[in-house]
Each structure stands twice: as C-alpha cells, then as structure tokens.
UniProtKB/TrEMBL annotation:
The chain crosses the membrane at residues 6-28. This is Cytochrome P450 90B2-like. Heme binds at C429. SUPFAM superfamilies: Cytochrome P450 (SSF48264). Gene3D superfamilies: Cytochrome P450 (1.10.630.10). Keywords: Heme, Iron, Lipid biosynthesis, Lipid metabolism, Membrane, Metal-binding, Monooxygenase, Oxidoreductase, Steroid biosynthesis, Transmembrane, Transmembrane helix. One of its GO terms (biological process) is brassinosteroid homeostasis. GO terms for cellular component: membrane. Its main location: membrane. One of its GO terms (molecular function) is heme binding.
Length: 482
C-alpha cells in the first residue's frame, strides 16, 4: 500500500480522476445563491477538478502540506475552494473545527465520500448519521467500555503484543509497519469474531483485508483490474467469512437456548440485537477497519518518533522498568496501566505530531455564520484536524517531538491543548481508549525487550491514509539488562 502514495499521480490516474470529477460534478443538485453572502476568501480553482489534486498531494503527516500552508498564508485559516467537484469550505481554525464536530446533526452532518461508503458498507458507522448511527455507536461504546478494557481486553492485548515481539529476532531487519498491522489485526479479529491468529481462515481474512485496504487508498474507479474493483471483490470475500462466523453463532445460540457464553462482539450481536444480518456484518467490518488502522499507525508512529528521541525513550524505559519491578502479578494489571503517566505523555505527543487523521468530511445543513463569514447550507466543509496540533499559538515549537509538554497543562499555551486525532462530538471514535491501551502495553514490552534503529530513512506520510513509503524498516538490538 505504501507505494500507492508514489503512484498516485500517474497520467492515467489523473485522466481517470478528471473524468470521475466531471461525472460527480453533474450530480450536484441545483445551485446555491451566494451573491448576498460573505464567503471566506479563496479561489475555486480549475473547472470541474478545482484544487483537488494539490489538496491531495501526499506530504509528511507532521506538516499541513504545501497547499494548506500556502492558502493559510494567503487567505487565513478558513478559506473556500472546489474539492471533488463540490464547493467546499476548508477550516484550519481549531475553534471552528471543534464547533463543527460538536454541532453534528444541528448545523453540520457527516459527508462520507460515496466511494468509501461503498467499500465499507452502507451500514458502517463512517457512512451513517442520525439515530441509526447513535445505535451503532452505542454498541461499539459498550463493547469497548472501561470495564471491558480492564477485564476483557488488557490480558489479551498483552498476549498479542508478546506474540509479535517474541517473534522478532535480535539483529534482524523487518517492517515495523507490517508488524504493527499484524498486532492490531490479530487483536481485533479475536475480539470481534473469536478468530485466532495463524489459522487458515484468519490468514485468508488477513490477505483479503490487505487487498481491501489497497482499494481504500486508491482512486474509486470500478473498472477491471483496478485496486478499487479488487477491494470491492475482497469485501465480498470478507463478508462471506464473517457471515459464516455469524451463522455459526446463531446456530450455537439456538442450540444452547441462550446459555452460550458471548465471548466476542459477533456472538453478543447475534443474541441481543434487532439489527439485521447485513447491518451486523457492516458494523463488524467498519470496526475492524477503524481499530486496525488507528492502532497500527499509532504504534508505528511511536516507534518512529522514539527512535530519534533518546531522552524520551530512556525516561519511558525507566518508567516501565519500575512498573515491572513493582508489579505483583506475572501480567500487567489495570493498576499497572494507570501508573504509566509518562507513557500517556508519549502517546499524546505521538498522536499530536503524527496526525493519523488529517481531515474529515462534513456538510452544512443550515446557513452558518462564523467569525463574520457565511457558510452556505449544502456546501461541503472540511475541518483540518491536524491544524490545531501544529498551531504555534497553541503549542510551543509544534514541529518538535516533546512528550514533556503534556506534564504540565495548567500554564501558558498548554491550557488550550486537546488532541483531535479521534475526532470529537457525537462522532468521537468509541475505540480511543482501547487504542491508547494497545499503544501503552505494546510500548511496555517493546522498551523492556529491545533497542531499535531505522535502517533506511523513512517518515509518516498523509493521504489517503497515514503510511510509511518504505514501511518503516527497523533493526532490533538486544537490550542490555541493568
């Protein structure tokens, strides 16, 4: 998938992309009279395609990219443009972005691209809105509640982390990105569907999921041999595998007369919900996507940033050495996790500077006024989530990896700090705490077991999802025990 970033602008893809935009442009219903409105400054760009190509140019995830920076300099933090053939307001204003996210359903609504919804499914949380989204999100929140994190997830997170780390051979070179994805995938399929790592069915699912993700990161051209077409085909295979698991749960529940232990989300949904089979399968696939991509990217970002920050790595290691000495049980407990204070600083700073999610898609459902500007009803609105993370008015020296900035949040600019990596408002990611726990537990065993180094220069890249062009190749070294 990493090379898709580099192939994004081949002539054939650009031509196909322009055709796609022209088609989508003519699907827009009607025109909005904006003559009497004070729109934000900006230009609409080229006919049909607008500024879509420069907006989607891959760049370091620790920056806003050349296009956004140029527009902020020229127009300010709120500006207009044409994106994907639609008139769009782009916001790099942190306060406005929070307002957008918190006004879900009142002033703005979700505007997930049709191509993403087709791959994830019409019943995925990313594509839904209104009451059905609330119902789906409530299921996810209950599945990943603090009580379940404490008793249900924590032991298995540690077990899956140790399986991955114990497979690493001292002196060997491998892709940290691939390993991070393997860890997150194994954990999610275990808890969603009780599929154990290494089994043929699980490996088949992993293979299809990889093809599925390549299509998510490609142009939405439903033509033979395209990545998008292959992703739609892989979606069908994935749903067949999940469907068999679902049917097995339903049969077991029927035979057990409700006495079956509900040890994964699929079993719980099979027994306790009024959702249809299609709704359940789309929900499971969407949660697999969200949980896998967020956690694996976050772990890789931590490995990347810590490798170039020896002081932070040393303090992190000292914290985990202390926890390891003091713990009374063989495995980590909830109390151990709660002692990882500097670890949480590392996690916050990793999410802030790494920017797993750069922007979101919303649409104004009413005419909105903000800071003297009019945002017309029906216009697309794109909040740039990473803008607040890289704002020098909020963070001192924002381009520097500095976990210690999170140790004192009561003075100076730090009073405005907040991480928006997991969105916000009614659509805030229900798996945010699970993702942080995965990072903390993985880092606990990583820093106690290894030192590591990058064997090639690499860096995190935005668009369409966060990735590393070279898949973050690292070499691990045995950690000398004190």
């Amino acid at each position: 998938m990493a090379m898709d970033f580099l192939l994004f602008f081949s002539p054939l893809i650009i031509l196909s992309f322009i055709i796609l935009i022209i088609i989508s442009t003519f699907k827009i219903n009607g025109k909005i009279n904006t003559k009497s409105m004070k729109l934000p400054p900006g230009t609409m760009g080229l006919p049909f395609i607008g500024h879509t190509i420069p907006f989607m140019q891959p760049h370091s995830s620790s920056s806003l990219g050349l296009f956004i920076n140029q527009n902020i300099t020229k127009h300010g933090r709120i500006f207009k443009m044409s994106l994907l053939g639609k008139p769009t307001i782009v916001s790099a204003d942190g306060d406005f972005n929070r307002y957008i996210l918190q006004s879900e359903g009142r002033m703005f609504k979700n505007s997930c691209p049709t191509s993403i919804a087709e791959i994830l499914g019409r019943w995925s949380m990313l594509a839904l809105e209104g009451e059905i989204h609330k119902e789906m999100r409530s299921i996810a929140v209950n599945f990943m509640s603090n009580a379940k994190l404490r008793t249900y997830f924590l032991p298995d997170i540690e077990q899956q982390a140790l399986k991955i780390l114990n497979s690493w051979k001292v002196g060997s070179t491998f892709s940290a990105h691939v390993e991070g994805k393997k860890f997150a995938f194994n954990l999610m399929v275990k808890h969603l569907m009780s599929m154990n790592p290494g089994l043929p069915e699980t490996e088949k699912l992993r293979k299809e999921y990889n093809t599925f993700m390549k299509g998510m990161a490609s142009m939405p051209l439903n033509l033979p041999f395209t990545s998008y077409k292959k992703a739609l085909q892989s979606r069908s295979v994935i749903l067949n595998i999940m469907g068999r698991c679902f049917d097995e749960r339903v049969e077991k529940i029927r035979e057990a007369c409700n006495g079956l232990e509900k040890d994964d989300l699929l079993a719980s949904l099979s027994a306790e919900t009024n959702l249809t089979r299609d709704q359940i399968l789309d929900l499971i696939l969407g949660m697999l996507f969200a949980g896998h991509e967020t956690s694996s990217a976050a772990i890789c970002l931590a490995i990347y940033f810590l490798e170039s920050s020896p002081k932070a790595l040393q303090q992190l290691r000292e914290e985990h050495e202390y926890i390891n000495r003091m713990k009374s049980e063989s495995g980590l407990t909830w109390d151990d996790y709660k002692q990882m204070e500097f670890t949480q600083c590392v996690i916050n700073e990793t999410l802030r500077l790494g920017n797993i999610v750069k922007f979101l898609h919303r649409k104004a459902i009413k005419d909105v006024q903000y800071k003297g500007y009019d945002i017309p009803c029906g216009w697309e609105v794109v909040p740039i989530i990473s803008a607040a993370h890289l704002d020098s008015n909020i963070y001192d020296d924002p381009q520097t990896y500095n976990p210690w900035r999170w140790q004192n949040t009561s003075t100076g600019k730090s009073k405005n700090k907040s991480i928006m990596s997991f969105s916000g408002g009614p659509r805030m990611c229900p798996g945010a705490e699970l993702s942080k726990m995965e990072m903390a537990v993985f880092l606990h065993h990583l820093v106690l077991k290894f030192n590591w180094e990058l064997v090639e220069h690499d860096y995190p890249v935005s668009f369409p999802f966060l990735g590393f062009p070279k898949n973050l190749p690292i070499k691990v070294h045995e950690l000398k025990q004190n």
